Amino acid sequence: MTLRLGDIAPDFEQDSSEGIISFYDFLGDSWGILFSHPADYTPVCTTELGFTAKLKHEFDKRRVKAIALSVDDVESHHGWIKDINSTQGTDVNFPIIADKDRKVSTLYDFIHPNASETLTVRSLIIIDPNKKVRLIITYPASTGRNFHEILRVVDSLQLTDKHKVATPANWQQGDDVVILPSLKDEAEIQQRFPTGYTAVTPYLRLTQQPK
Questions:
Q1: What is the pTM (predicted TM-score) of this model?
Q2: Handedness of CA 8, 13, 14, 16 (dihedral sign)
Q3: Which are the catalytic amino acids?
Q4: Right CATH number for 13-144 from 2.60.200.30, 1.10.10.10, 3.30.930.10, 3.40.30.10?
Q5: pLDDT tens digits, residue range 17-50?
């Protein structure tokens, strides 16, 4: 199965480091980040999981639940978590799916045969409260993920879902945003963006980030 943006994320039930996970029940009405790892006891993944644990307060502010996946079993996960906690100076505070049968990896297209026939690639999926897939990023096994970028994307998605705006290149919280080209009624524009806007071109209109 190949997932694309806008698809409904598949539900599943699978064992994890925190017991059996029913994915939709786990997510509830929160946003979700599901990210896969090639295997337990791998150095890059160890740093990623440790850093994710340290970001819990940032995820909580955004109503985001993180959940990881590796193709090793629960016993292996528990041993690896001890290593992560001791080497990264944190406590893993989210489940790691034990996908030994590759059920979830197959559902989410995490195994790319030309990279490896048995190990998952380093993929990450953002899922919104309606269970729609909103972002898919796949990294090579040698490259660790940029979780500050993941937070930035969540901020952009949540902002643009609420207001008729898009976020420009390298946007950060508090930067100006772009008014959607589809919004043409000047009265509505003034109501939505009372601080006004700058028309760089008729289709590129910048305004202050809505609060």
A1: 0.92
A2: positive
A3: 45
A4: 3.40.30.10
A5: 999 999 999 999 999 999 998 889 999 999 999 9
